[in-house]
Amino acid sequence: MPAEDLVDVKFRLYDGSDIGPFRYSATSTVDMLKQRIVSDWPKGKTVVPKAVNEVKLISSGKILDNSKTVGQCQVPFGEVAGGGGGVIVMHVVIQPSLAKTKTEKKIDDSPRKIVCSCSIL
């Protein structure tokens, strides 16, 4: 594979630490990058992704779509990395699934009886 088809990417976590850098093919999808992040997540972090769908990747201020390839996203990458040859830094955001947070927060929706003990003089 020619060197120009490869991109070096590292992932910046919420606490400023990094995973990588890793070298990816231009045909690698964002979903593949997310799978790598979940499998290589450092031990001992307070926030841990449970699944790939909880990971959001941000590059050049944009959330990257899972179906996009590194090559399709490379235009802003080249500008950020100084025209190639540099390591691309993607920011990692962990967003727990809504189903989990809804079940963890039990809300009492039962009707309440309001009793008023007002006295009129």
TrEMBL record:
GO cellular component: plasma membrane
SUPFAM superfamilies found in the cross-reference section: Ubiquitin-like
Keywords associated with the record: Cell membrane, Lipoprotein, Membrane, Methylation, Palmitate, Prenylation
Predominant location: membrane
Any Pfam family the entry gives: Rad60-SLD_2
Protein name, entry field: Membrane-anchored ubiquitin-fold protein
Membrane topology: Lipid-anchor
Residue intervals of the Ubiquitin-like domain: 7-75
PROSITE patterns linked to this entry: UBIQUITIN_2
Keyword Membrane: yes
InterPro entries to which the protein is assigned, alphabetical: MUB, Ubiquitin-like_dom, Ubiquitin-like_domsf, UBL3-like, UBL3-like_ubiquitin_dom
Task of the protein: May serve as docking site to facilitate the association of other proteins to the plasma membrane.
Localization: Cell membrane
Organism: Hibiscus trionum (Flower of an hour)
